[in-house]
Design goal:
Order of helices and strands: HEHHEEH
Strand content: 5-15%
Largest sheet: 3 strands, antiparallel
Mean pLDDT: 91
Structural class: mainly alpha
Low-confidence stretches: none
Shape: globular
């Protein structure tokens, strides 16, 4: 199985609690970063539901690690 196919199979929508756990940020900070254009935008899932693309969050985390190196 190729890496590209495996990555696509692992791609999913993350809800806020999962994003908070992955980034270590709380809700207010995540939304402030989104507003400043420094964090991936949430996807509207329903009237009162949003989520984030796991690939975008993983990529964002990878970029932060590269910036620190």
């Amino acid at each position: 199985m190729s890496t590209e196919h495996t990555a696509a199979a692992d791609r999913r929508i993350l809800r806020r609690a999962e994003v908070e756990a992955k980034t270590g940020f709380k809700r207010a900070h995540i939304y402030n970063l989104m507003k400043e254009g420094k964090f991936p935008k949430a996807l509207r899932l329903g009237i009162r539901a949003v989520g984030w693309d796991s690939a975008e969050i993983d990529s964002w985390i990878t970029e932060r690690i590269k910036e620190r190196a």
